[in-house]
C-alpha cells in the first residue's frame, strides 16, 4: 500500500516545520488584498503561522509575514489574527 505524502509547511514566526493542517495561512490575493485563509485552498501567495500568539508576535516583530508575502500588512490583519489566536488558545 502506498503511503500518502503529508504536506509540510514552515511557520514564519518560529521556523518549525509542521503539517499544513496545524498552521494558519495568511494570503495575498491577486487583487493585493491580505486575508486569513481558513480553508488553505484560496488563490494567492501564502505565509503560514502556528496557532500561538508567541509566533504571531515574533513574525510581527521581524516582519516575516510581510517578507513572505512581499507586501506591507495593515495593523487590522494583525489584530484580527490576534483575536483568532486568543479564541483558539482559550478553547
Protein described:
The protein has 91 residues and is an alpha+beta fold. It has one domain: 2-Layer Sandwich (Hypothetical Cytosolic Protein, Chain: A). 35% of the residues lie in helices and 22% in strands. The chain contains three helices and five strands, in the order βββββααα. The chain has helices spanning 53-62, 64-69, 75-90, and strands at 8-10, 17-19, 24-28, 34-37, 45-49. The strands form two sheets. Strands 4-3-5 form a three-stranded antiparallel sheet. Strands 1-2 form a two-stranded antiparallel ribbon. Strand 1 (8-10) and strand 2 form a beta hairpin. The longest helix has 16 residues, at 75-90. It is globular. The model has no long low-confidence stretch (mean pLDDT 89).
Features:
alpha+beta; three-stranded antiparallel beta sheet; 3 helices; Hypothetical Cytosolic Protein, Chain: A; 91 residues; two-stranded antiparallel ribbon; 22% strand
Helix-strand sequence? EEEEEHHH
The major beta sheet can be summarized as:
3 strands, antiparallel
Q: What is the CATH architecture annotation? A: 2-Layer Sandwich
Unreliable stretches, pLDDT < 50, 5 or more residues? none
- Overall pLDDT metric: 89
Our Rg estimate from Cα atoms comes to 13 Å
Q: Name the beta content range.
A: 15-25%
Domain count, please report it: 1
Count the strands? 5
Which class in CATH terms? Answer: Alpha Beta
The name of the CATH superfamily reads YlxR-like
Amino acid at each position: 500500500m502506498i503511503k500518502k505524502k503529508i504536506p509540510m509547511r514552515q511557520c514564519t514566526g518560529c521556523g518549525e516545520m509542521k503539517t499544513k493542517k496545524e498552521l494558519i495561512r495568511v494570503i495575498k490575493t491577486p487583487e493585493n488584498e491580505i486575508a486569513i485563509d481558513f480553508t488553505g485552498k484560496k488563490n494567492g501567495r501564502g505565509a503560514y503561522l502556528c496557532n500561538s500568539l508567541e509566533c504571531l508576535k515574533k513574525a510581527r516583530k521581524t516582519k516575516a509575514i510581510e517578507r513572505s508575502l512581499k507586501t506591507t500588512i495593515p495593523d487590522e490583519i494583525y489584530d484580527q489574527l490576534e483575536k483568532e489566536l486568543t479564541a483558539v488558545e482559550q478553547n
